[in-house]
User: What shape does this take?
Amino acid sequence: MRNWWENAVVYQIYPKSFQDSNEDGIGDLQGIIQRLDYVKKLGIDAIWLNPIFISPQIDDGYDVANYDQIDPIFGTEADAEALLVEAHKRGIKVIFDFVMNHTSDQHPWFQEALKGPDNPYRDYYLWQKAADKQELPTNWASFFGGSVWEKEPNGSDYYFHLFAKEMPDLNWENPEVRQAIFAVACYWAEKGIDGWRLDAFIHLEKADFQQQLDLEPGKIGLAEEYYANLPKVHEYMHEFSQKLKAKYPEIFIVGEAASADLSLAQGYTDPAHVECDTVITFRYFPETTSQKDPRLPANFQPAPLDWTAFKEEMQQWQTKLGHERYPTLYWNNHDMARMVSRFGDEEHHRAASQKMLATLMYLQKGIPFLLFGEEIGMKNLLLDEQKLVYDSQEGAFYQNALMDGYSKEATLKMLNQTSKLASRGAMQWNEQAYSGFSTVQPWSGVNVEPIYNAAAQVADRESIFHYYKKLLALKHQRLFQKGKWTYVDFGKSFYSYRRSDSEGQALVICNITNSSHTIEVGFAITQKNVLLANEELNIKNAKTIELPAYGVIVLKQRG
Ligand code: GLC
Ligand code: CA
Assistant: This one.
């Protein structure tokens, strides 16, 4: 049986930033419904929404206080049901985001657990006492800065949190927790959702908290060996997915496996041991790190993609995972900067580099995951000082960089190129006030630009939008879904591969540099065998072709 998602192109909608329908500056479900025709027109098969459940919004909805109810900022349960109906009417599947590793500290389970060690919900979370003569149970750091341990407000125990302190981790060893989480998954599957994106699932198992990192006293450090990709994650996932698929065989499960390397990803997606259908790894984008300042955290200092390492990485994923499964294909999401700003040439070749990068990635073997707005060439949101305070990591980096002698401008520029906040700017629908996202100031801020807004892009046949439409139509052909992927080495200025099956072949050639290069392909190039190109090309029926800066051409080859 062929699974629907094998041929799907997924469009990620950050609900807060897509379309505001009630003039409060926050995107909502009715707003998404209003824009479904646009999504359909682009050629999308499924939308993935970041969390829309009741939440204090400490982490923009990844801190869930009630999994069964829609947060009023997004709308009502009826709106969610209407969204499902309207999407399905248009043949669009809907994927929700499931935060299963932790809840909000406002979740009733945690509120109960705080009542003391005897409370039946105590064991839903992870508790420790401080180790002898130490302030904290372990010297492990959380992903959002600070320790993973926080002292309970009215007692002497510490609870564990991998992200913000308002997001306590669930205790997956407790079968009641697994049962409760499963019930949530079924609740929404029953309402008709078509898939789950499983947030941070690789962290479900933790070591037993008896381990300390080898650090100077008083210091803490990331301790992934004790809380990421531990063996029981496979067990938990298998139990969850197998039960869910038994009830809802068509449900698509895409796991967020940030630090998973190829071999872990192979394990998580092994069809013989039902866990995830595919995973999103953050390993695709190795950077050249030589120019980073060691005094400051590396992740907020921009660095160019290391193309040589990227090519090697992609070849591994494409050949070792892609030959029998479906890797995810993406350049950006809500946790990282936007692709054209990070990997393309936003200043001089914005449209060409956007189109080239999309082609490079999405015609490979796998499932494209687009981030809303990339189809119109949206760039990073310009951040201001005010925006940073609300997110502790960026705020801390800002303060530290200033102390290390960086100017405000230089620091903001670095953050602007690296912060996840830069990808969360409101969708640019038109060139009017607030880019047509809302009639009031958007929560996130918004870039207002000519050309790079949906209205202008849809009106212009040569736009990025129309190029994406053609690209996605091509992606829906059998060859680009099922065909074998082979890297073709044309040297360091190019990224190139062939897709082939019993019926034919296609060659995708991308100029990854900002200058023009001529390439010899080994067969005569005619207008007829050009499936797609992002720039005007001078086709001379010769075996060579000159590709301008960030030029891309997709050529059909016989047999
Ligand atoms: C995932 C989400 C991220 C969130 C974190 C904690 O990594 O993508 O946005 O902050 O999990 O839930
Ligand atoms: Ca709203």
Observations:
- The pocket of calcium ion (ligand 2) is lined by residues 20-22, 24, 26, 28 (CB under 6 Å).
- Residues 4-104+175-211+222-383+424-472 form a domain with the TIM Barrel fold (CATH 3.20.20.80).
- The mean pLDDT is 95.
- The CA atoms of residues 240 and 467 lie 40 Å apart.
